[in-house]
Amino acid sequence: MTSHARLAALLLTLATLCAPAALATLATLCAPAALAQPGHALNCADPLFQAEMNMCAEADFKAAERDMAAAYELAIAQFREQDRAYAEEGPEFAGAEVALAESQKAWIASSGDFCAARSLTFFGGSMRPAVHFSCLAMITRSRTEELRWLLD
Fold first, then answer.
1. CA 53/CA 51 separation, integer angstroms
2. Residue range(s) defining the domain that contains residue 33
3. Are residues 61 and 104 in the same domain?
């Protein structure tokens, strides 16, 4: 479906949902409601409205988060096994699992703060969620690569 056809279909949905408002206002006020309607597929390759861009950025972050969680589970399992294998050598040879878990907790806390600082530039604006989630997606992908680097 072309962008123009998608826009026309979405505007028709908007007009149905928000008939009292002017058409320009409909697109701004009702886009999230129209995008949430059953049968409306989110098209992140060609988003039409800021609300759609925000939802696409969030979806991208969620996908990056799932990838990071998978990499973390592999790394933590590897370090758990490593700790078991080296435990007999002495306590100084174990602790990788705990160190990684603490590192991950700290990373999660700081990533939220980092991206909140970035998105504050857009406080009150409709694109703030897209900026925030795009930031989270970017640094989450970076963290995922760090976690993968830890693997054998």
1. 5
2. 1-41
3. yes
The C-alpha R_g of the chain, in whole angstroms, comes to: 22
User: Are residues 24 and 55 located together in one domain of the fold?
Assistant: no
Q: Map tokens 């949902």 to a residue.
A: 17
- pTM reported for the whole predicted model: 0.72
Q: Are 126 and 50 in contact (CB under 8 A)?
A: yes
List pLDDT tens digits, range 32-62. Answer: 555 556 667 889 999 999 999 999 999 999 9
Compute φ and ψ for 39, nearest 5 degrees.
95, -15
Cα–Cα distance, 34 to 49 (Å, whole number): 11
CATH number assigned to the domain comprising residue 76: 1.20.1270.180
Check if the beta carbon of residue 68 is closer than 8 Å to that of residue 142.
no
Rounded CA-CA distance 32/53 in Å is 11
Q: Are residues 113 and 133 both part of a single domain? A: yes
What are the pLDDT digits (tens) for 85-117?
998 888 888 899 999 999 999 999 999 999 999
Q: Cβ distance 135 to 111 under 8 Å?
A: no
